[in-house]
Amino acid sequence: MNERIRVPSVRVVTEDGEQLGVMDTRDAIRRAREIGLDLVEVSPNAVPPVCKIIDYGKFQYEAKKRANEQKKKQVIVTVKELKFRPATDDHDYDYRLKHAREWIAEGDKVRAAIAFRGREMAHRELGAKILERLMKDLGDVADVEVAPKMEGYQMFTI
Q: Between the CA atoms of 116, 122, 126 and 131, what dihedral angle is there, to the nearest 10 degrees?
């Protein structure tokens, strides 16, 4: 900005986008000061660097405003977790299934985990059945990202 621009010549553009051509940096700064504005380097890697004659405060304000708009448009996806046990009853399963449908409708991801304890590890097929049933029941509203797999004492899918 202004005196901080260290190159000998720059390509100058006005606030309206009108090209003033390549000129000496000092002349460009003088011209900007005459109008009561600042000379701001917008493209330092170009040859020669591109500078714009604008109100720097307004430029910063608009850049901040654009950044906030972009931030608002970003979609944040959270991963919600459903915990099951190999002996999960039908009512509990239906209750969790209802919540999973709500979360998926809101745009969240659902991670279903089945925790095994002790001798339950010998009956992993019970956990696999629950996850297969869940994937089948949610198949109309969601896709499986991670196939069911064991990780320690838990079997999970997303």
A: 50
**Domains in the chain, start-ordered, CATH in brackets?**
2-70 (3.10.20.80), 79-157 (3.30.110.10)
Does residue 8 have a cis peptide bond before it, meaning omega lies within 30 degrees of 0?
A: no
Ramachandran area for residue 94 (φ above 0: left; ψ -120 to 50: alpha; else beta): alpha
Q: Is 141 helix (H, G, I), strand (E, B) or coil?
A: coil
Does the predicted model carry a pTM greater than 0.70?
no
pLDDT in tens, 101-128: 999 998 889 999 999 998 888 888 888 8
Phi/psi for 5 (5° steps) reads: -75, 120
